[in-house]
């Protein structure tokens, strides 16, 4: 076909959904494919990602899009969740399951580690990472070294998940900063290099060479396209906003985790902030981005299932519940502060009332979380993207909570994937970056 559409393919791998997107040179979505896999279990019986299903899905999806005559694939890259390592042997084969970042971490190993390197507060402060057990992916590799030295010896490279997926196509192992800089405990944010414990424990040779986030390589087999090194999803989601907005803003990227990212906050992390799950990410340019995290998307998922079961309705019920300020006022007047998981569902008159209470509870936590990264670096706008940006109850409550800041539901067609594509724009796209890729909906505070 003579006039093929030049596109970039982005694999967006979340904990729940695995998606493939094709974007044209205007960053318009022209093709989408979604897959879900059943989890498998690791050797301890703990649930984990099915790595083989993921690998096969990549090649199945690519076979499908390469067979379509209308697309000219110029580049392929990846964005995935973080804190997850794939351990490769000399032949490039995975040596272990893809361990879940929620896997329990042995207290003895953790205690020994922190004692050896100056204590939790010092290590946390220097690495801009709260103490999170397996969510500190560097500690996953340290655990293997301590518990299974024979396995550790066989590891050629420990690749974070985005870089493993890139490796599947390029055959070249790399590390990059957005994956290294997301609560891994690996990076010394003061010295802008691996922390001294990484070198002290002999981990650095197991970590592939660091390259810039806009690096591309050739594919290992066939095809005239570029392969990006992949990005950590939270950092990728920030890129369209950094490209389009220069006034100070806060981005609340909502998904399984709701992450408040303030790229304009240069204040050092305090021990108190670290204990409240604040951290720093590294942006695609290598700059520290102060952030706070809340497991709110996961909580929403669990509690909506509970509500659906209790009220005997479809689990997608919440998509049809409109914002009702009177219901909010009635519930707040009761002043029943509690974790929603502990609330008696029989105390609610109907599903609308119960769901409004769930969102009240989640937004109250979100306010506390976001305020942590607004302190010392106020912003003029808050952008919310992802699932909660489409939730009118959530958005209205958030706008009400920050009356002096403009609050917007921001819609970028797949912000994480668009950000990943933007990071290698110059390698695949002959056109300038469009300035209308972010759709904004302003949530005004009603004047009483």
Automatic annotation (TrEMBL):
Cited Pfam families: FGGY_C_2, FGGY_N
Protein name in the entry: FGGY family carbohydrate kinase
GO MF term list: kinase activity
InterPro entries: ATPase_NBD, FGGY_C_2, FGGY_N
Occurrences of domain Carbohydrate kinase FGGY N-terminal (ranges): 8-195
Top-rank taxon, per record: Bacteria
Domain Carbohydrate kinase FGGY C-terminal: 247-426
Gene3D superfamilies, alphabetized: 3.30.420.40
Family: Belongs to the FGGY kinase family.
Organism: Polluticaenibacter yanchengensis
Record keywords: Kinase, Transferase
């Amino acid at each position: 076909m003579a006039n093929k559409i030049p596109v970039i393919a982005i694999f967006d791998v979340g904990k729940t959904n695995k998606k493939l997107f094709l974007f044209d040179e205007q960053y318009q979505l022209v093709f989408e494919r979604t897959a879900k896999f059943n989890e498998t279990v690791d050797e301890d019986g703990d649930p984990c990602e099915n790595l083989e299903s993921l690998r096969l899905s990549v090649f199945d999806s690519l076979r499908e899009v390469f067979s379509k005559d209308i697309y000219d694939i110029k580049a392929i890259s990846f964005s995935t969740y973080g804190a997850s390592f794939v351990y490769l042997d000399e032949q490039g084969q995975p040596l272990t399951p893809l361990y879940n970042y929620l896997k329990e971490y042995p207290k003895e190993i953790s205690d020994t580690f922190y004692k050896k390197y100056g204590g939790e507060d010092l290590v946390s402060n220097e690495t801009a990472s709260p103490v999170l057990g397996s969510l500190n992916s560097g500690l996953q590799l340290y655990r293997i070294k301590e518990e299974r030295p024979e396995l550790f010896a066989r590891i050629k490279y420990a690749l974070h998940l985005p870089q493993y997926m890139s490796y599947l196509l390029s055959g070249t192992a790399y590390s990059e900063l957005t994956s290294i800089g997301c609560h891994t405990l690996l990076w010394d944010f003061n010295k802008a290099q691996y922390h001294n414990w990484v070198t002290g424990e002999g981990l650095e040779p197991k970590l592939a060479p660091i390259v810039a986030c806009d690096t591309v390589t050739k594919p290992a087999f066939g095809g005239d396209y570029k392969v990006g090194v992949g990005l950590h999803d939270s950092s990728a989601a920030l890129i369209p906003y950094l490209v389009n907005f220069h006034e100070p803003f806060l981005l609340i990227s909502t998904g399984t985790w709701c992450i408040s990212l303030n790229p304009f906050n240069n204040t050092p992390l305090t021990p108190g902030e670290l204990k409240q799950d604040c951290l720093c990410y590294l942006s695609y340019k290598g700059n520290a981005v102060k952030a706070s995290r809340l497991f709110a998307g996961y909580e929403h998922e669990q509690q909506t299932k509970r509500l659906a079961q209790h009220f005997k309705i479809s689990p997608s019920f919440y998509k049809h519940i409109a914002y009702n300020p009177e219901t909010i006022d009635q519930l707040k007047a009761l002043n029943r502060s509690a974790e929603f998981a502990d609330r008696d569902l029989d105390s609610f008159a109907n599903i609308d009332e119960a769901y409004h209470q769930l969102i009240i509870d989640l937004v109250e936590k979100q306010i506390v979380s976001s305020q942590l990264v607004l302190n010392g670096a106020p912003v003029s706008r808050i952008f919310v993207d992802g699932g909660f940006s489409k939730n009118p109850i959530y958005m209205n409550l958030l706008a009400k909570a920050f009356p002096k800041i403009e609050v917007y539901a921001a819609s970028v067609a797949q912000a994480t994937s668009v950000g990943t594509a933007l990071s290698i724009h110059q390698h695949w796209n002959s056109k300038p970056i469009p300035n209308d890729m972010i759709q904004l909906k302003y949530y005004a505070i009603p004047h009483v």
